[in-house]
Design a protein that fits this description.
- One of its GO terms (molecular function) is cytokine receptor activity.
- Keywords: Disulfide bond, Receptor, Signal.
- It holds the Pfam family Tissue_fac.
- Belongs to the type II cytokine receptor family.
- The structure is a single chain.
- The protein is mainly beta.
- It is built from 2 helices and 17 strands.
- It folds into 2 domains: 120 residues, Immunoglobulin-like, CATH 2.60.40; 97 residues, Immunoglobulin-like, CATH 2.60.40.
- The strands form 5 sheets. Strands 3, 4, 6, 7 and 8 form a 5-stranded antiparallel beta sheet that branches. A 4-stranded antiparallel beta sheet has the order 14-13-16-17, with no helix packed on it. It has a 3-stranded antiparallel beta sheet with strand order 1-2-5, with no helix packed on it.
- About 6% of the residues have low confidence.
Length: 232
């Protein structure tokens, strides 16, 4: 028997702790870590995407966590724990468009877990893209009335899904075409629910397309498919 001095005792405790951590913790499988973790957002539907690691078994499962920038604690996404798919809808968790968010993903297999892979910092108000508005056309003589319906978010209020214009200022462009040639471009703000286009030629087919535009950045949605009507 021999007695350990104070420093020797601390060294022994530290060594045993490290051995226990190595034996008791899940093994890290960094070659199984997910790839290209990133947010994609359309109409404030904020979905985290990643890719399957190279040469990994297709039976890998994934777990997702998220947090607001500046918070210390990560929050596990309840519906994205032990999933096989390569995406996780975090729209509800990232519902404030003026906050910055992070998310992270790791893979799980019988051999162990990978390290966490972090997304870039995500700011919904700047990074979401928008769909074009829906339009409904009514013809009266040589006048077309365009009813404009902004795209909606996945978030729900008392009256159903919330319009994107509640969270982001948009303008809408209406393109008027005849014989496949663009004749006029009309622009209206997000408060206007309809646009009246008059003084058109009688008995003529007109086609219209709509587009959402973010005024500050100038970002544009794709144009909607054409909707055509005949004047009287």
């Amino acid at each position: 028997m021999f007695a350990l001095t104070g420093p020797q005792w601390l060294d022994l405790v530290l060594a045993m702790s490290l051995l226990c951590w190595a034996d008791c913790s899940p093994s890290q499988q960094d070659d199984m870590a997910p790839l290209e973790v990133q947010f994609r957002s359309l109409d404030f539907r904020n979905v985290l995407h990643w890719k399957h690691p190279n040469k990994a078994a297709k039976t890998l499962k994934y777990s997702v966590q998220y947090k607001i920038y500046g918070d210390k604690e990560w929050i596990s996404s309840d519906h994205c724990q032990g999933i096989h798919k390569l995406e996780c809808d975090l729209s509800q968790a990232t519902s404030d468009p003026r906050e910055w968010y992070y998310a992270r993903v790791r893979s799980l297999s019988p051999a162990g877990v990978s390290s966490w892979v972090l997304s870039n910092r995500f700011y919904p108000q700047w990074e979401t893209s928008f769909s074009p508005p829906q339009i409904k056309l009514t013809v009266t003589g040589q006048t077309i009335t365009v009813q404009i319906r902004p795209p909606r978010t996945p978030l729900r209020g008392q009256k159903g899904r919330i319009r994107v214009t509640k969270l982001q200022k948009l303008t809408f462009r209406i393109y008027l075409m005849h014989d496949g040639v663009e004749e006029e471009v009309h622009e209206t703000d997000s408060c206007s629910k309809e646009l009246v286009i008059g003084s058109l030629r009688p008995k003529t087919t007109y086609c219209l397309q709509a587009q959402s535009v973010t005024p500050r950045s100038g970002r544009k949605s794709l144009r909607s498919s054409s909707t055509c009507v005949n004047t009287h």
